[in-house]
Design goal:
alpha+beta, globular, 12% strand, homotetramer, four-stranded mixed sheet
Chain lengths: 427, 427, 427, 427
């Protein structure tokens, strides 16, 4: 039986389907066809691949099973747009996605329209779908929201590694500002048993289930995100040149890529400029640092004599100090597309940047991936990656929860990632 | 002093400039913007990079020197469009060309128009340019013709490695056909001293100069190109599975890439299909085999108990048996875009496919590269590559000569390459 | 102040020093000089490098500080024998260790004698060393014991990848045998708060400190190790050919190395033979499976519908069901040099094989690496590795504890690694 | 029918066999077992592999065919000691040779004795062998002499890349000295037809046959080798930092390996020291430069405004100016093991260093490799390598001829390689 937690309310589905699907297209609308094709590194997928892949997901996992007589749009598209589902057959090697100039962007949009029309027909005919159908639909929509987030990263990578530094959009609005914090204040958490994992009615992924108890020794966490200004102090103190702060794997990374700053920081005439989706602009020291990888957070924390919170510590503190997602939280609906300085009273648990935690991505007790191809969604990645929490400025607002577990390899910088510090004991 | 051989007649320059430049644009016109961006392997450059690079060549090597007050179009374009001229400054690493989505195709066309307008102004003002200017202009045009040829290879690679096998153009005309040759007939050449290298008034590259004498022992060469049907016999005889036919480096290549046929040959329901710029179609055994690398030619020749001609043997035989370039030779003006079966009486020295020779690419006596950046054009590649002769179906007719020395690394298959056999002694 | 837990009792030091040092030499005695030089993969170090490195450790971290006027044996040996201590200066790149034919084995033994003589002099003069000196000495000895374990792995690798399959020693004793277990029985653990980490007087590494409370939901663990026979069933059920059992990273590994069995399993005339330090012999299905990596344990567990215990679950169950290390536990003093079938009543928590756990190697609360070069010992490896527990047949008996945390990358097979299953809830 | 050129006179065979075989053992005698095992780069083979391989060659290609009832020494040795003969079955991957610690050096010497005993028996019983047997025997001996040369290179590489810089032998004799040449004097050769390739009775390899005519335009060659002092001038003029002197492939090599000097040159307190088989010593500017690769010779020559001779120019000049091999030529019998300054009147065509030529290694007219496994000896390497001429201080005297064609890849420095300059025309 499906856990009720996994199922969206039926009334919202058709509208939600249209909303999510059109958001993807709006996101890609400012791009030129040329921008939609390339794959500068293996982790970055071409925007048109994203647009096709999320569409194939509905075709493969929904329409083929639920819409009798459904004809797939093109016999080769499964090969082109399957990402990693072994259960769904052969596919283009990941590193070759960026060589596939066809189908063109226009043809991918036609594919989207074809699938959307069939989905609309089905949704109209089924105002109250059965739980399994509702579940798969919801997975498809959540999946597309995740790819919307990835699209922000990948578009930024494509534009930000071009010597012309083209902007994704013009600067639209006055920037939100705030004072650079003068010092570090910590939120305290006493020792005790805390409940971790999802409960209740809303949707969640299978990796959040298995709600269970953990014991936390007393600890404290920073009441906000680490800022770019604070991170720059670490750099100016020689942080990238002193092995003592670094994990061994991190030090190898520093030397291999000759790292000396977060991604998208460029020295211009003695000042740091950063590349944003609005182009190059001067660094704002009050804003949360972003595009740091796990190694960089560890080095900063060791330099400070502290550490990062575990995902359990993060979740418990978030529930205590941010029991509701603030209306002002910086998600995609805010339109900033970049982390913003802390607003008064906000602890920045939600939005702005995903927070690296000091927890490896591993299964919760009683975790069990389902046996279908959809079972490949989360479970098979549970080795070698670290957990991040809280969502970012590239996350759709409705997509996030306190229990949401994101995960990435520790060397990656291209996501909107940041961190907060933690320490043992109460102050 | 410039050798007169290197200089084009002045009267033709303005018209020729327009003709060459517009030919490049016509060649790219059938492409979609998406096709113009990618670089599936390091040897293949994005079509829009070619369009920009050949334009930068005129800006860098001509306009900056000859047009007073010339303003370059964009300060970063030299960085983006320099290929390998160390003397012309820093540039994008070759393997990253395919990550540069900007400038867009449209912006590259605007770059072309800007440069063309300035070139036109200069050409109008200088009806009779000095030899050095004429020489550089001609180099620029020859250079662009070479990139037109590469564009054919690269476009074919991009489309031919896509699972959708999109055609570059519709099949336009009835195919030229001809009977598959029944047997091998050889052209005989007696022992003696032959003159090798360019002489006379027309343009040539510096690597063809240094006309000199070579002594050739008696030999014979096939009176035509090896056909696809003959090559298929080699395959059916187990040619790709028997190490004895292969150079050691070739056998490593066979095993590394699991080679079992020329590039663009695909087994479809028990028959060989080949990908052409008009899409997939059945193999025509009467047409010259193409997209074979040097290793494959050596294996075939050893299987036959023969060898390839040296570039000297090729040139001497070409002068004897094809003193003029036949009007029916298969160059780009013929529009076939693919090698065609031998037409009666033609020895196929010109057009169809570049012929691998058994000569390494090395300097002729008295070879001297000029000291400017243009000196990097040919000389610095004189190690590790083999010479090919005669031009192909992707070569502009006026571009070729009996003395023309093309050169590629021995493992490459993506060019229109083929071969003829040779043997020692008279029959 | 040093935690008392880290310090050995002074009376034992001189005798213990001699015992540990001579054990290393005894271990290498059966090798020929040729065996002592090579490094077939980067993870395997040459035996003579191990012998030199552990000696350098005493020179670098003890004699230079504690023995006034000590002259180092050779000015280049620090460069040759430093492993990864950034704080101790430049060193040979790890992958080049196997190219260093000098110093010879004989010269390394002379280096050992030189250092041992100086250590003996110091130990004689200091019958009751100060805590810091005792601590560093003990670290040096524990360090050498760890390298004794690695020597077993590396010697086995060197001999076991040679087509001649030379034995490290002749089969000396009748093998211990036991019946293959008929079924799986589980040890039960109820929910509750458990204390994790080292307490008390004996030595431990810094990564075991920070004793803290964890809450464990009810679970059960297999009352023994998984056997070779059980693992063979997984193989015969197609375990290596079905992606559904594998982590994504594990499935990549299977395909990259074409894995179809644990390391050192060889099919010989339809039966599995395994390579041991006594050479090739038939597989004994009753013995614990070994030389499996983390991916393989995950695939087996998923095939069984179970999982592995976390390191916390392992430690709590070990304390409950094996509060003392059994006298019959299979450590180096037993001399088996290979895992042996379960003896009646033993739960196999100690010895035989290191048990992979489902825990990533991460710091305990209040973990803090010391600031000296010795601080590089454990802490800088806390990313990307998994924890193993319990020691193996290559571990010196006195070296192990219930709280001991070993750690390796998940793809590695060359250690004596195995596993036990776990499941959620009571039966 | 075998060409008579390929066959040694029968009377010398038994004595010559003993002489060649014992020379190999004498060459390895100063090594320790540890030195005999490793393979620091793929081009370097372990000395004990060489000793086994040349022995296997006699077993495989002679004893198995000619000695009735011959029992091979060990069934796995063919697998271990076959180098690249596809026709002789499977073998250890080349890059793994250095992981094979067994058989030990002692066991390899026993293998040698076993084969030698059987060879001696056969030679005694066949005082006048048939031509084919004599030919194969001679190939085996020539082959072993080639491996003697390689042993010098590989031993030097193994010792010269060790931070201890151990000497292969003590400095035995006063060094031969000579004045550094003041200027460059050239030997002149007029235009004409020259005969190239082997003629006459003595042994030669198949790649020297096919004696044929070449026409050479007038040229001149340096009357000696380029010296270390002259090469140092090139370095001091910034030769390694100026792309204009380099072939493109050479410039890539310079940047990839950060080249700034020939191999084995080390800056020590402001002076160049070089590593020789007698250890580190100051550079002697009068001696021929060695351990330069083809790229370096090209850069030097272009810096000088000259070029290298082709192999044909070299051979014709050698025949004219050094018709006999000088008794004082620096081969292994001289015992210098290093190039020595030019002695009065010697043109240094023979010995000291192999001279890179500006010729790619390609077949002569009428070249045909024999069809047996021995046909893999030379022919299959005829792509991508350059020809060197004249022998070196590591070549046995009797091994060399004016027509001898050695060949190596252009990036290699570990051989005793050097060069002389050439130029077009008479002075």
């Amino acid at each position: 039986m499906l856990p009720s937690a996994l199922i969206s309310p039926p009334a919202t589905l058709a509208a939600r389907y249209r909303q999510v699907r059109s958001a993807t297209e709006a996101l890609c609308a400012p791009l030129r066809p040329e921008d939609c094709v390339v794959q500068p590194v293996v982790d970055v997928s071409p925007p048109k691949w994203h647009m096709g892949h999320v569409t194939w997901f509905f075709e493969q996992f929904f329409l083929k099973d639920y819409l009798p007589g459904y004809q797939i749009f093109h016999p080769k598209y499964a090969y082109l747009f399957n990402s990693y589902y072994e259960g769904a057959g052969e596919r283009v090697q990941r590193a070759y996605r960026g060589n596939m100039t066809r189908p063109s962007v226009q043809e991918v949009l036609e594919y989207r329209q074809y699938v959307d029309a069939h989905m609309a027909r089905w949704l109209e005919a089924h105002p109250d779908p059965a739980p399994r159908a509702r579940y798969i639909l919801e997975i498809g929509l959540q999946h597309e929201e995740q790819h919307q987030e990835l699209l922000h990263y990948d578009i930024k990578y494509i534009l930000g590694h071009n010597p012309l530094f083209p902007a994704y959009r013009e600067a639209e609005q006055p920037r939100l500002s705030g004072p650079a914090p003068a010092e570090m204040t910590f939120l305290e958490m006493e020792a005790g048993i805390y409940e971790i994992g999802h409960a209740g009615e809303g949707f969640c992924f299978d990796n959040e289930l298995g709600r269970h108890r953990v014991f936390l020794e007393p600890y404290r966490v920073l009441d906000r995100l680490v800022t770019a200004g604070e991170y720059r102090e670490f750099m100016e103190a020689g942080g990238y040149r002193d092995y003592r702060f670094w994990l061994e794997e991190g030090w190898k990374w520093v030397n291999m890529v000759q790292a000396d700053a977060p991604k998208y920081w460029f020295p211009v005439e003695g000042e740091w400029q950063i590349f944003t989706l609005e182009g190059l602009r001067p660094l704002n020291p009050a804003e949360p640092v972003t595009h740091v990888n796990y190694y960089e957070t560890q080095a900063f924390a060791r330099w400070k004599g502290m550490r990062l919170p575990t995902e359990f510590e993060w979740e418990a503190a978030c529930r205590r100090y941010a029991p509701e997602i603030p209306a002002a939280a910086n998600f995609t609906d805010l339109g900033a597309l970049h982390p913003i300085p802390r607003q008064s009273g906000d602890h920045q648990f939600f939005g702005d940047v995903w927070e690296w935690t000091q927890s490896a991505y591993l299964p919760y007790p009683r975790y069990h991936a389902e046996d279908s191809a959809l079972g490949e969604y989360n479970g098979k990645f549970m080795v070698g990656q670290m957990v991040l929490r809280g969502g970012s400025c590239a996350t759709p607002r409705g997509h996030i929860r306190a229990t949401y577990r994101n995960f990435f390899h520790p060397h990656l910088q291209w996501l909107f990632s940041g961190f907060r510090l933690a320490a043992d004991g109460l102050a």
